[in-house]
């Protein structure tokens, strides 16, 4: 292309297709002739949510960077269809993300039964598998013991006759060495089988505890407990391999509030676990009249809690750590209402989910 010399500068500035332009979205330099194709793929170019969600603006006006669309759909879009978290347990419901909280509340007991059914099935399968392995290991141990007994008898016979002729003595010593080698090999096999049995038992314990991330706690004699202001503790339960207890204080600081706490207990696997422990916890006081209107409290252990209350989350050195939870879960008058207290008893569900270390 030929131009008058006086027009070259203007051409280079305003109309040359090869001039470098700055993309206003990603701030990269792009040739003018390639700008439109670039905008079709620019990761910083604003595009609407495919579901036309209204988060952050009027309906259909939410603008996202192109690169953020998949993350938005995966994590936050309220109109994105998602599977129920209990899909793996048999709940085949799919719905918009914004409806999931309501679904989880309305189907809480169904989800609970599904998860319990799945846990029992896994326990049965695991128990059968481990029983088969135990039976096989037991048979092998019996066989090894019989072989040891047989070789021991042979060794005794060899020793009885070892003082015969020198030729016989030499032959018998060779047999003795062979027998000793076999015995050592058999001892190694027994040691190996003992180790396998220990591993099997650890797997059994692990499978059982990993399935119990929550506690359904029925507490009787509530009125008397409130009057006596006595602390109440649950039976131990496991989250992963962490041993825990629930704790209720019926009149925290004499302010008429019921406090609910989680105590991390000293367990047999503490040396294999990560400390300090982090977790998300939910306390649910079941409503006996309307199961869709339970009384709930949810929180999680963050960096501030770890720094301010380290004794609650460290590896226990005594029987258990200080409890951590809420000092004002509900008033000790409201908890006695008929919808929560039936025949002087309440049911408290404690759910715990382990979180990654900070």
From TrEMBL:
The keyword Mitochondrion does not apply. Keywords: Coiled coil, Cytoplasm, Metal-binding, Repeat, Zinc, Zinc-finger. This is Uncharacterized protein. A zinc finger (TRAF-type) spans 38-100. PROSITE patterns: MATH, ZF_TRAF. Residues 169-203 form a coiled coil. GO terms for molecular function: zinc ion binding. Pfam families: MATH_2, zf-TRAF. It is found in: Cytoplasm. GO terms for cellular component: cytoplasm. It comes from Oopsacas minuta. Residues 212-352 form the MATH domain. Residues 38-100 form the TRAF-type domain.
């Amino acid at each position: 292309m030929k131009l008058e010399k006086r027009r070259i500068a203007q051409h280079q500035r305003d109309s040359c297709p090869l001039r470098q332009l700055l993309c206003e979205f990603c701030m990269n330099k792009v040739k003018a002739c390639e700008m439109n194709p670039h905008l079709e793929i620019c990761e910083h170019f604003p595009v609407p949510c495919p579901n036309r969600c209204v988060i952050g603006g009027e309906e259909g006006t939410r603008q996202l960077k192109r690169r953020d669309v998949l993350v938005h759909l995966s994590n936050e879009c309220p109109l994105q269809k998602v599977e129920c978290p209990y899909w793996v347990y048999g709940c085949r419901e799919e719905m918009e993300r914004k409806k999931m909280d309501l679904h989880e509340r309305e189907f809480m007991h169904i989800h609970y039964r599904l998860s319990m059914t799945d846990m029992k099935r896994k326990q049965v399968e695991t128990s059968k598998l481990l029983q088969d392995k135990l039976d096989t290991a037991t048979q092998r141990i019996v066989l090894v013991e019989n072989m040891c007994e047989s070789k021991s008898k042979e060794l005794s016979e060899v020793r009885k006759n070892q003082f015969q002729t020198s030729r016989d003595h030499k032959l018998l010593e060779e047999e003795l060495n062979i027998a000793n080698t076999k015995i050592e090999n058999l001892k190694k096999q027994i040691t190996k089988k003992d180790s396998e049995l220990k591993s099997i038992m650890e797997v059994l314990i692990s499978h059982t505890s990993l399935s119990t991330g929550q506690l359904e706690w029925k507490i009787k004699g509530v009125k008397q407990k409130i009057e006596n202001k006595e602390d109440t503790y649950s039976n131990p339960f496991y989250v992963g391999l962490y041993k825990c207890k629930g704790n209720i204080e019926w009149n925290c600081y004499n302010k008429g509030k019921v406090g609910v706490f989680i105590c991390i207990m000293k367990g047999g696997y503490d040396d294999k676990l990560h400390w300090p422990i982090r977790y998300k916890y939910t306390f649910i006081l079941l409503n006996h009249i309307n199961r869709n209107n339970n009384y709930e409290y949810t929180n999680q252990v963050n960096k501030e809690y770890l720094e301010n209350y380290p004794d609650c989350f460290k590896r226990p050195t005594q029987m258990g750590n200080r409890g951590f939870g809420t000092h004002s879960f509900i008033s000790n008058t409201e908890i006695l209402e008929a919808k929560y207290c039936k025949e002087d008893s309440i049911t408290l569900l404690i759910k715990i989910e382990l979180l990654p270390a900070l």
